[in-house]
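[Meeting: bench + compute handoff]

Bench side (C.D.) handed over the final construct sequence. Compute side (W.E.) agreed to return the predicted structure before the next meeting so the bench team could plan truncations. Sequence as handed over:
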Amino acid sequence: MESKVIDLDNNAVGNIQLSTEVFEVPVRADLLQRAVVWQLAKRQAGTHKTKTYGEVAGSTRKIVKQKGSGGARHGGIRAPQFRGGGKAFGPVVRSHEIGMPKKVRALALRTALSSKVKDGKLIILDDAKLTEGKTKLLVQKLGKLGLSSALIIGGAELDVNFKRAAANIPQIDVLPQQGTNVYDILRRDTLVLTRAAVEHLEARLK
């Protein structure tokens, strides 16, 4: 599968052959959903915590005698039914991460890339570099490319000027090639890959 390569001024600078194994697999919504859930669960902090009966401050004295009061059989004042008592079955600090096999993750990433190709939302850039880190300059160049919502994936090391210029532009994300992931691909309208990123992804996912 052949695709046109352009520069930041939207001028054609050549063509590139895209691997059908990576960019032309059947699009499966179930895999994309599974990958997004896996990613978001993994980043969830899980630092919520409530105090249990044994952790709240308070006396352990039995508040009424066991029999003869006509009321309920209460123990300590720290029990969950009392105000200020411990929480029964409350949240604890834990990891929300779920499992997802490596091969399924790789297939989900191939599916996400293929979905952008299918929708005509994939652009191949010769390189993502700027002579100066000015947001105004990058906005002009993105305007030439017709991009308002895009994920731009560069090489192993991002160009400092390009990264700095893109930092203040809403709905424009920039990632190095090793940070390519399903969630960020799907959350932006257009996917922009550099030549280096294409070579990396094909080597990684073939």
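W.E. noted at the follow-up: The chain has seven helices and six strands. C.D. will use this when planning the next construct.
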